[in-house]
UniProtKB/TrEMBL annotation:
SUPFAM superfamilies with a match to the protein in the record: P-loop containing nucleoside triphosphate hydrolases
Protein's UniProt name: ABC transporter related protein
Any one annotated GO CC term: plasma membrane
GO molecular function: ATP binding; ATP hydrolysis activity
Gene3D superfamilies: P-loop containing nucleotide triphosphate hydrolases
Localization, UniProt: Cell membrane
Coiled-coil residue spans: none
Organism: Lacrimispora saccharolytica (strain ATCC 35040 / DSM 2544 / NRCC 2533 / WM1)
InterPro entries, A to Z: AAA+_ATPase, ABC_carbohydrate_import_ATPase, ABC_transporter-like_ATP-bd, ABC_transporter-like_CS, P-loop_NTPase
Amino acid sequence: MALLEMKHITKAFSGVYANQDVSLSVEQGEIHALLGENGAGKTTLMNILFGIYQPDGGEILYKGKTARFQSPADAISRGIGMVHQHFSLVNRMTVLDNIILGSGRKKEVLDRKAAAEEICLLAEKYGLFVNPYEQVSSLSVGEQQRVEILKALYRKADLLILDEPTGVLTPQETENFFQVLKRLKEEGHGIIIITHRLSEIMAISDKVTILRDGKAVKDFITQNTTPEELSAHMIGRPLSPGMAERKKPIEETALRLEGVSLLKRHGNKKSLDSICLTVYKGEILGIAGVEGNGQKELSEVITGIRKHTEGTIFFEGEAIDSRTVKERFNKGISYISDDRHQDSLVADMTVTENMILRSYNRQPFSKNRILNHKQAESLALEAVAEYGIRTSGKSGIRTPVKLMSGGNQQKVILSREISPEARLIVASQPTRGLDIGATEFVHQTLMKQKNQGKSVLLISADLDEILSLSDRIAVLFEGRIMGVLDREEADVFKIGLYMGGVTKKEESHEPDETVKGG
């Protein structure tokens, strides 16, 4: 008997099908991958299972009985847990309080000590080590994910839904995470994992269901298929055989950081420590490192969001330390943030309105403080066509971006920031949460910018992405540059050493002038 059967599930929004006649079956002790492009209906299907949405048609059988989950609380009480792509944790509360919050355990007096002991036992059993009394805001992204999984296990979940669980993890954290999944599988838990990464599907899953345009197009036993076959069914075509031809960088400096430091918001410690770095025209400079080692701060001091406390930043030969975010953008510095919801989009605004957030107050989009809607909509229509942006419903470019999938939201940002005027593109995790087709498109777009003589500072937790795109690679550790590697000499082993805090000098046992990025 299957642990879960979803039969002929249908769900529409504003007359447009998000799921149409979708069936899915998951056994106990099975890791089932759900694969599909952005907007294919994967998250909608899981939100129906978790009680966030109600289906318009179809049937759910859970543990052999007909089920209709009216709310997430209803699904949780029946043994279903879901870890969303964007975690649902209260940052100002402790790990313990987040886990027991809303757990539904009926006791007049909560025994916090007993709850903490139970959480510690679960953490030890599954290798999800985290301090129950630590505040969530002080945890790394990987540690926050452990809290989400512990929360589901504390609530006795038999079926776990994981939405893009490795999108924010380093390679080491991903490997540890897979070990956790294997333990859960051995104990008979059912696991549904939504991911775009074919290598991870091949490594961890037992079965794969592919969705395309809201329909289930194919089921596979993982060991009987290949990444190429999965890709072809997912996007309806094979991936391009390779990257576009790579032109050599121009020996002319676009961006230079000299001794740039940034103090943390509280205390005297530094988020960035004496960064010296050069980006050439026509170059992609990759920034690798375990997340939380200064990548966010580096991107924000370059784009003007934060004011560095020491050093000087030059762009095309001019010191820009006193320049505002707007002034730097007008000079040609654009920014693709790693947090699209917090930094890059106004969720209630339309595609058109988000497209002109940077330029609404200048021609051709406005004159004498009057907005030219026709020009704005013309820009949005061009972006939708060029970037393949899928909007929701019949509203088209007037669709609020909050109704679009994460990947299509990211495409709106890309189309806005990679403008003809942009000469330096600071791209932080530009493919996070994107499917392989959209990722391929982003990679080709960045390479096209490079080949046109523009500069790209690529910050990514995906080492494969860094290695395939970068001309040179700088590695950050605790706000310092451990070393800068040319494309030809870079490999995962060397980068891994620097990510762990080993400098180029220590690795070679020789004096080194590039420890600060030279």
